[in-house]
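Batch 3, record 17
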Amino acid sequence: MHLKKTVIIALCVGLVAVGAWELFWRSKGYFPDLDDDKHLWAINRAKVDKATSNDVVLVGSSRILFDIQLKEWKALTGIQPIQLANAGASPLPVFNDIVENSDFNGTVILGVTPPLFFSTTYPQAPPWSRAGSRTKFYHDRTYAQRLNYSLSVPLQNTFALLSDDEEGWYDDINLKALLKTIKMEKRTATPDMPPFYRFQDIDIDRNVRMKQRVVTDTAFAGSIKKVWKFFMLADMPPPDKDGTIVFFLKDLKKFQARGGKVILVRLPSSGFFHDLETNVFSRKDYWDVLVSQAGVPAYHYTDYEPLTGFDTPEWSHLSGPDASVFTERFVNLLLKENVIPNAKTN
Amino acid sequence: MLFNSLSFIVFLVLVLALYYSPIFNWTSKKRMLLLASYVFYGLWNPPLVVLLWISTMVDWTAGQKLAVEENERKRKGWLVLSMVVNLGFLAFFKYRDFLLDNFTSVVNTYGYGYQAQPMDIILPMGISFYTFQTMSYTIDMYKRKIEPARTFLDFALYVTFFPQLVAGPIVRAKDLISQFYEEKKATANQFIWGLFLLTVGLFQKIVLADTLLSTTADDVFGSNKLLHGVDAWVGTLAFSGQIFFDFAGYSTCAIGIALLLGIVLPDNFRYPYAALGFSDLWKRWHISLSSWLRDYLYIPLGGNQFGVARMYAALVITMLLGGLWHGAAWTFVVWGGLHGLYLILERLQRRYLPFQITAANGIFLAFLTFTCVNITWVFFRAREFGTAWNMITSMSFLTSDGEKIIETFDMWKVLTVVTVMFLCHWFMRNTSMKEVSLKTSPWVMGVIWGLLFFLIVIAQGSGEQFIYFQF
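Prediction for the assembled complex:
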């Protein structure tokens, strides 16, 4: 065998195939972007260990991830918040990690999405484990994993073909995800989840912005609504209101004892989610109870005129431009009430 | 550091650049390789490099003493020291909680109500591999089978050589240390073949094991229900393929990487799923471990020198301990025990029901062996006996209401990959990739190689750890 000839042919075939693959997906509208994964979360969690009492950390579920824009916050206060919220997850494991495993004594803005906040304290339950697995990874990650991620960022920012988000989106283009889209005759009794398309972009600071397509393409927005319904109508254990509040208050007390401040926020929702959160997780029985027991500044979007009137195209999150406006209004409100640090006046 | 990671690509490029740099002499290159090997290991968990150093120091000292010591009691003392340190590491880091759990269970059967505190100790990656490798040096020195390593550097590099440090092949001193004595440089053909093997190994791991098979295996073995027979079999076949591609993939990468440096490592797999019986299987599966167990356990236990009963006992003890080597759980012991039983049954068959293996019955025999191997994998993969029992019940089609959890496409995907794997093993059983490549046109080889590279790139993978790292 002529190995030199072989390696040249292999190199040509390999590079042409990879190049063609990259061009094909770009022609389909894909572009280089980062994945929201445990590695990205961990490098942002690491910032908490160096943060001062003037810093702000965002904790919560996907709403605070989409609705609070970091650039706008920084423009108004001179401080860029550290974004540690996790989609589809309870905020409690992350807040617990900050309280137990860091000396941070700044401000935590904690987003309350009732079906997730009040869901569970059981470590194996998905709302908990989705966040808990990330805090665990942060503490367990090896130097090799840190190095791998540093090397992967420039590649993710260069090649559209790299897509391996932990969420496992229907439109991911790695081989496993592509094979998953092949359907044959149904064999199991498990209901098929509707296609869950990626509907946001994320940057290295974990600033998330909804894709404009959700606003302009109602069918696309509809596909996400179907997923929300699929999740929320599935058999789910009953909420554990008392357990979650007790867990949170214990951490809150410890955090306040070392000088930390917590601000609770309830962000906009509409349609199916609004109905669910009104009927099943009524404000009186959940949010009001939490706020009265916590005794910390708390902001429900319906209580403040500047925070109302926003459209949530898929019932749960704000569009990119709306999120910018919402953030400005929310930060101005917090500044007016003097509850967050402001480097611009200090 | 994992072979299937970006940091390893950078690491390997740097090592190769320094290795082939004209500024270093051979001793400096070996020092660089040693340092690189510690970095390779330390990037996972730096403090645990100390264990490697202790193992290296103890066995180097024991080896030096054994080379000159004539007093048999003292010689035995040095051997025992090596055993105590290496097996002590294994006992403490790998088997402590297992031993404690079993001790607690036994004590509590007598009503003591003892509560053990598990220490939740981290298992040092590859500890079973490098301790067995260093012990083989000391045992061979004790038996006067080999010469001592010429320098401490050669010995330290033998213990720590990064391509095979964490998951083998477990290389004997005579096969590796002597390669460090003279300057090594890969020929152009060796270098290209090394790159090809690295590509094949990564393809096996990233595409076949992680992308095509792991999810089905995880779903089936993660279920705590009785499954439909087809689902249980498909899950087991998926694991059967996954563990082969994962482990053989690692070995192929290791052999390829060493070859890039001009170092030749022995084969660790020779198409094991085409084995004709279990003696043949163990000459083809994890060859470096099975030959280690044969030479340092089965033969010292008497082997076949002291009658049939002793031979069967030696066989079973060897396989039970071989099972325990893989993991601190009774399920692994059962896995080893089943293999021991198979080996005994095979010897009985040869004695009382001998038959000629022909081309016609060969593939049937290979398939029968493969089927029996799959049954043992159930105990290897299941973390609890309850899961294993559910799987065996389901695979026996003894339940009429077993749940179907695998979708049609996933079922066909696994069956296709495993069938192709089995047939490849069958057609390759008497040859090697190298021999086949020599008869293949460079165009065909080049296109295949390019496609393997392409599939690795599009599979991407999330840097899944190799299964055997936990052993």
